[in-house]
Automatic annotation (TrEMBL):
Protein name, entry field: Radical SAM protein
SUPFAM superfamilies, per the entry: Radical SAM enzymes (SSF102114)
Cofactor: how and how many bound: Binds 1 [4Fe-4S] cluster. The cluster is coordinated with 3 cysteines and an exchangeable S-adenosyl-L-methionine.
Record key words, sorted: 4Fe-4S, Iron, Iron-sulfur, Metal-binding, S-adenosyl-L-methionine
Annotated residues for binding of [4Fe-4S] cluster: 70, 74, 77
Occurrences of domain Radical SAM core (ranges): 56-290
PANTHER family: AMINODEOXYFUTALOSINE SYNTHASE (PTHR43076:SF7), FO SYNTHASE (COFH) (PTHR43076)
Molecular function (Gene Ontology), one example: transferase activity, transferring alkyl or aryl (other than methyl) groups
Biological process (GO), any one: menaquinone biosynthetic process
Organism the protein comes from: Flavihumibacter solisilvae
């Protein structure tokens, strides 16, 4: 498969990948710089099929976004409103959030995903109370919620450390952590795009605390803005090393920077070729992450289908028009909703096998 590659270093990296050997950071950067789309795609697809065959996971989920009022000012964000302008944003009460949960009472959803702005008045105990009420209403619904950015803020205000805070929320009903807030770990980029929120070590420490009590989590990376390939690899390297220690991550989710209505709108968005290379290198580099996800509300349906040939084995869930994060940033999917039948068709159209999963990748019979 790889013999057509004339660059001998690329060929040697390809042989290593085919032999199931880990690549180094320098080799990762080299793949980004010199690997053609077709070469990277062939390697990533080989890994994907070795790990998962044709299986492509999706789930039935919905989101709750408690608020978009936020104390932080990430330059890539199109969604948040500062507290000083809170009347331009929204802030849901506990009852309004429970009403969202109740809307799904007769539907076989398995997961609620809760993230949002970091509102200065929404405390650790407020969210613990929300978690308890959701669990009291629907105990089997998996609650995946809060990024380390949100958690770090609420833990600091409540004067608890990461371990104490995670244990407290887990006991209140939090089952796992989503992957958000990671952006780009390297301080030289992080300081330019989201200087005021939790740094790389803080992000990783909160996931480590979650893993230490048996919770699982995901990890994201926001790419395609001012970062260089070295920063992407540095980001993935930090995650890969931590995964060697804890084994608690399920899924890596590259998130594409979208440029509508934010302070980085002058930066052009990455091309589809760059997006597919990103997935492919992620699949090759993150050898200890079981799953690679293409988040379809961000990428669009056709591109999500394409990604299934570039290492991706998960396309997220039904969503039911319950998140505004990417629609406000200019995604083509302005009201993201798919039925499970539509998700299955999307997957089958590209000759992959749809498999409904729960958050932890247990199969859902249905
Ligand atoms: N508040 C989260 C973070 O920065 C993101 C939620 S989506 C707007 O991590």
């Amino acid at each position: 498969m790889c013999n057509g590659e004339s660059d001998s270093r690329l060929k040697q990296i390809g042989e290593q990948v085919m032999a199931d050997k880990r690549i180094t950071p320098a080799e990762g950067v080299y793949l980004f710089e010199k690997g053609s789309l077709s070469y990277l795609g062939a390697l990533a697809n080989h890994i994907r099929e070795r790990m998962h065959g044709n299986k492509t996971y999706y789930n039935r989920n919905f989101h709750i976004e408690p608020t978009n009022v936020c104390v932080f000012s990430c330059k890539f964000c199109s969604y948040s409103r500062l507290y000083a302008h809170k009347e331009e944003g929204w802030e849901l009460t506990t009852d309004q959030m429970l009403d969202i949960v109740k809307k799904y009472d007769d539907q076989p959803v398995t997961e609620v995903h809760i993230v949002g702005g970091v509102h200065p008045k929404l405390t650790l105990s407020f969210f613990a109370d929300l978690l308890r009420k959701i669990k009291a209403h629907r105990p089997e619904l998996h609650i995946k919620g809060f990024t380390p950015v949100e958690l770090d803020y609420m833990f600091r205000k409540a004067k608890v450390n990461a371990e104490e805070g995670m244990k407290f929320l887990n006991e209140a009903g939090l089952d796992s952590l989503p992957g958000g807030g990671a952006e780009i770990f390297s301080p030289e980029i992080r300081e330019q795009i989201c200087a005021d929120k939790v740094d790389a070590d803080g992000w990783l420490a909160i996931h480590r605390a979650a893993h230490s009590i048996g919770m699982h989590s995901n990890a994201t990376m926001l790419y395609g803005h001012i970062e260089k390939y070295e920063h992407r690899i540095d980001h993935m390297e930090r995650l890969r090393s931590m995964q060697d220690e804890t084994g608690g991550f399920n899924t890596f989710i590259p998130l594409k920077f979208r440029n509508k209505d934010n302070e980085m709108s002058h930066i052009p968005e990455s091309s589809i070729v760059e997006d597919m290379k990103m997935y492919a290198v992620a699949r090759i580099y993150m050898d200890n992450f079981p799953h690679l996800k293409a988040y379809w509300p961000m990428l669009g349906r056709n591109n999500a289908q394409l990604s299934l040939s570039f290492g991706v084995n998960d396309i997220d869930g039904t969503i039911d028009d319950s998140t505004k994060i990417y629609s406000m940033a200019g995604s083509e999917e302005q009201t993201p909703t798919m039925t499970s039948e539509q998700l299955k068709t999307l997957i089958r159209q590209v000759r992959r096998e749809p498999v409904e999963r729960d958050t932890l990748y247990n199969l859902v019979e249905g």
